[in-house]
Amino acid sequence: MEKINSFDEFKKQMDALVEGIKKDAEKFYSNDNKAAGVRLRKGLKSIKSFVQEVSNATSPKNKK
């Protein structure tokens, strides 16, 4: 992951991750599409990893 220097960069990356799972979420919840559920879980894990990396990057800044 590249270093995030502004809120706009954070928002852009987060929006891209969320946008990537929208279709799969719709297919899973509307049509009970199991393959879409697998893709949805994978996308959610990517979001979790991204948020964890941002959280770890902000921790040193908060300790100053």
What's the structural blueprint in terms of helices and strands?
Elements: H1 7-31, H2 34-63
Number of helices: 2
Tell me the major beta sheet.
none
Which structural class do you get from the secondary structure elements?
mainly alpha
**How many domains comprise the coordinates?**
1
Task: Work out the radius of gyration.
Answer: 15 Å
Helical content (DSSP H or I, runs of 4+): over 70%
Tell me the fraction of residues in β-strands, as a range.
under 5%
Write down the secondary-structure element order: HH
Care to count the β-strands? 0
The geometry reads as: elongated
Query: What's the pLDDT, averaged over the residues?
Result: 90
Distance between the termini: 23 Å
Query: Which residues form runs of ≥5 with pLDDT under 50?
Result: none
Q: Can you walk me through this structure?
A:
The chain has 64 residues and is mainly alpha-helical. It has one domain. Helix 1 (7-31) runs antiparallel to helix 2. 86% of the residues lie in helices and 0% in strands.
Which features does this protein show?
mainly alpha; 86% helix; single chain; 64 residues; elongated
